[in-house]
Amino acid sequence: MKHRVLSSAIASLMFAPACAFAEDAATRTPVELDELRVTAEKGRRTVLAPLPTDILSGDALVHRRQGGLGETLAGLPGVHLDNFGGGASRPVIRGQTLPRIEILSDGAPVFDASSVSPDHAIGTDPLLLDSIEVIRGPAAVLYGGNAMNGAVNLIDGRIPTRLPENGVTGAAEVRLGSGDQEKTGVGRITAGVGQVGLHAEVARHNADDYDIPGGTLQDSFAEGTTASAGASWITDRGYIGAAFTRQDSKYGLPGHSHKNGVCHTHGIDLHCEAHGSYEDPFGSSDDHTAYIKVRSERTDIRADYDDPLPGFSHVRLRLSHTDYQHDEIDGPALFNRYTNEVDDGRIELTHKPLFGFTGTFGVQYTEGTFGGLNVNNLHVAFPENGYGFVPPNYQNTRNKAVFLSESRSFGPIDLDIGLRKDWRDIRVPVPEFRVNFTPFYEELFSSWYGPDWKNVIRESDVDIFQNRNPTTRQNPFSASLGATWNIRDGYSASLNVARTERAPSVRELYAYGNNLASNSYEVGLVRSGSVSDTFPDSRTDVLETTRSVDLTFRKVGGVLEYEVGLFHQDIKDYVFARLIETENETGVPHNYLLYTAADATLKGVDGQISLQYGAGHRTTLFGDYVRADLKSEDDNLPRIPPGRLGVRHAWSSGPYSLDAEYYHTYAQNRIASYETRTKGYDMLNATFAYRLELTERQAAEFYIRATNLLNKEAYVHTSFVKDQSPLRGRSMVLGVRYTF
Description:
Layout: H1 10-13, H2 20-28, H3 30-37, E1 53-57, H4 58-64, H5 69-73, E2 79-84, E3 88-93, E4 102-105, E5 108-109, E6 129-136, H6 140-143, E7 150-156, E8 168-177, E9 183-193, E10 196-207, E11 211-212, E12 215-216, E13 222-235, E14 238-252, E15 264-266, E16 269-271, E17 290-306, E18 312-330, E19 333-354, E20 357-371, E21 386-389, E22 394-410, E23 413-427, E24 433-436, H7 439-449, H8 453-468, E25 472-474, E26 477-488, E27 491-502, H9 506-510, E28 512-515, E29 520-523, H10 528-531, E30 544-555, E31 560-583, E32 590-613, E33 617-630, E34 644-653, E35 656-665, E36 681-693, E37 699-707, E38 731-739
Helix pairs in contact: 2-3, 2-4, 7-8
């Protein structure tokens, strides 16, 4: 039995067709096919089998990788991107991005700050991934409510799971790009010493501002270094290992403006002019470069072991500690620092057949401290003769969960059942309280409040702070039932019904201040009542509840293959940012947004149909469409991607391969009240590669990938800064990869 470090979803991928990219790559490169074979674990299936799933791996992943995860995945059926220049891009699955999709590292959550704001990059480097699995549909039964719309599982090799056949394996890659002067280098090596596997890897990426039609996008630069070292003890029944990963990066924020840092509220009115105690925290011109500087350290412990106990076929362990920090810098000013320190543990036990059922029971525990929300003045010194709390505030989150998945076959029908229960609470500790008085004011306050005046004014402010930042407790429960009818000759039809619950994110709950990245002043669910009596009462009990139906049709094997999914979601208490007003006083529009809950529906279709013909030719038609409606509001949901339709042709002959794709993204006219229409665009990309077998164990590949060959001006409706951050213009990447 071969082992592979994967999430509990990966076994289900063996029952769904991989995307055309992976299939073409596997045809050309038998080694990559071997990699896919070891992803399954003995006797394991999961409730995700009925859901449409794509695998991006092998040559296809190598050729498509970019600095951001969203850019790398954009173009897969049902997957768009939410971009913020060259440094931050998040995947959008079936119309939703973080926090309604979950980003996983081998089945364990990736902890960063990407779910809090669109300018925050996802804490991974696609250059060091072995494969990426995209699950379209409610994966909350395994990964919690944040996976209500899907999950992206990032598979890496930082912890060896098997010993290299010849003692050592590795790879090196160099890339040079024209559109942004990209310079990238990647190296990795895995060695076996007895029963110990050792692994080391490093990737360095540097890119200037990228070209757009008619010029260059200022502050779209990105650079970063990721390094990892791991070791594991490997036997014929499993492994246990650990790895440490360090990521450092820096990237610009195109279109960023700090002019609206002065914005504040007077009840339902947004006011963007300094007066009285409301001062501009920057007080300088707006021509500086704004950028984010990231440091992330993560330690992982992983284990998989077969036949650990009587009655159980497998046990899997995932432990991680993440220490994440990024600084937000505008010219000379460090105006905010986000932090996220998290411990997470997950253990799963897979039992042997019992009354015809096989399944997995698991528990998960997460505890973390997040900081940086609602801060834009970290660079401002504490005022003289002032008193109050010193930023930042922190939110302490604790989550416990149990989950169960079971499956059984009844002739041609495969039945899958999944359940998950969470208990989550978020507490906001009282920040540091500081008094900075001259002797005159100390004497004055002493005369007003007595000799214990410092504690008196502190206790008063603490009471106000705690009332405005109450502890929130949610206990979401998710369940799904799926059935797959294996008709014959590779044809199948799957139906999955689910009821999933999602607890609101930290920003949705506790936001109260300016988000300069999205040009908005935001008020969270628990702060609304304290801002204005005309706003809805503060709420700590919101649970976003989704009832969903997914229908998937598949054909695997043969000349014709396809996977088409239809979905419908009925959502109660969908949390979204409602527009109160737009203020233009500074010349940069600033939206006053109130997080509220309303009922909504999302429905759509996505998939692909491929035809294999001739010698090494495959043509694939792909597309997606999603429609979102607010049922109880006279408005539309913001940043919903428009429809898309495209065609891809792949050809391979001996050492040569060619992949070309063209797709049209339609205009988006169904917009929220504070959005503008986004016009459609055409995209043409192509990759040509030549593979040279040097020896039995060594190979080199030379490739050139061209994107946006038509040099079309392209704006993505899903982006918070769509007008300030268009997609890249025509660009080419020349790469060479060596494996041994």
